[in-house]
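Task card 7
Instruction: Convert sequence to structure tokens.
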Amino acid sequence: MFEPSSPRRVCLVWPRLGPYHLARVRGAHERFARDGGEAVALDVATDDRLYEWEVEREPTPFRREVAFPGRVFEDLSPSQIQAGVTAALNRIDPDAVAVSSYSTPDARAVVAWCRRHRRTAVMLYDSRAVDAARSPLREAVKRTLVRQFDSCFASGAEHGAYAIDLGIPPEAVVTGMNVVNNAAFAAGAEAARQAPERWRDLPGLDEPSVPFFLASNRFIRRKNLPALVRAYAAYRARAETGGPLPWPLVLLGDGERRDELERLAGDGVVFAGFQQAAVLPAYYGLAGAFVHPALNDQWGLVVNEAAAAGLPLLISTGTGAAADLVEVGRNGYTFPPTDETALTEAMLRLAMLSDEERTAFGAHSRALVSRFTPETYGEGLHKAVRLGEPRSDRGLSLAARAVLWALRVGARDASSFHTVEA
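Output:
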């Protein structure tokens, strides 16, 4: 019987590391170090255009490499990315490599490198079957690629089930992949509650004693923010005709739909812009509740952040995290993303809770998200690597070679073959 060994070195690859990724690599590094190993982070590029995170330059307790220092991910061609990631893996020489999904050039480079060198390939996966329309041909291509991975570290049960459908053996799937730095959000939120006056200069926090609904998103179609603004207007109209004073709605983020949202917004809506990680906990700490109306969100890490900060949650059923982080009536409510009336009712119901009831909801949010931490991430990745190791001694299948060649020749940019709106 094959007995998996403890890998000496695991490499985690992303287009570029943001705050979430740094927390995860720390958790992984601590876990692998217990067995005498290490986790190494590989950024493909220094920056990207998809997210507005500040470039993280602080020293880390783990080794970190950048395949293309000073470059922007979207400016690189697929062939450049594949060559750069391959060269970096040759330098790092890991026993296992974990990479996000399978559809981007960096992921294709990882799986080809692992098969060539007989190393363990772990797919970090946060897609669900319901996230997009699925065509038989595209699914067949996906299965060919996914079967080249040895194991999968998935976000939740739905994500793991889809990975199994695409060809990962059920016994090689681990869940719990999507985590944030819970401790930082909890501590920052509590500090803001203890000294709210420190944050009066931030947009939306000029009256920190007033509870408000908080949403944090990129302003893109699938985040469903026009529906939130309309549902909020209905909530406000009903609250003004009887009941407690209506809470404001603070929108964090920015994007292509901002002008549309500003035209749609009425009284009580505050556009606070994109905020960096250093001040996000203050918004969570001073909010009365968090609302996430997405039509489709594969997971929704902002839900983790809000739960770690101890907030009641109003989360659409289109959000992957809802199944794991919301218990209806105990820490919040869910609603169909296309039912604006249901969202209005949920906002009214939550705003009418007493302070004690909202505190109890927030405490249960913390309890639920305590299963998703950097430490549990480290354990989950370690398990996924060990489960994948028995399958790692194999080369690329002929079908996979053909698919990788076709994608290398036909891909116009790094996002080619990616289905869900980023």
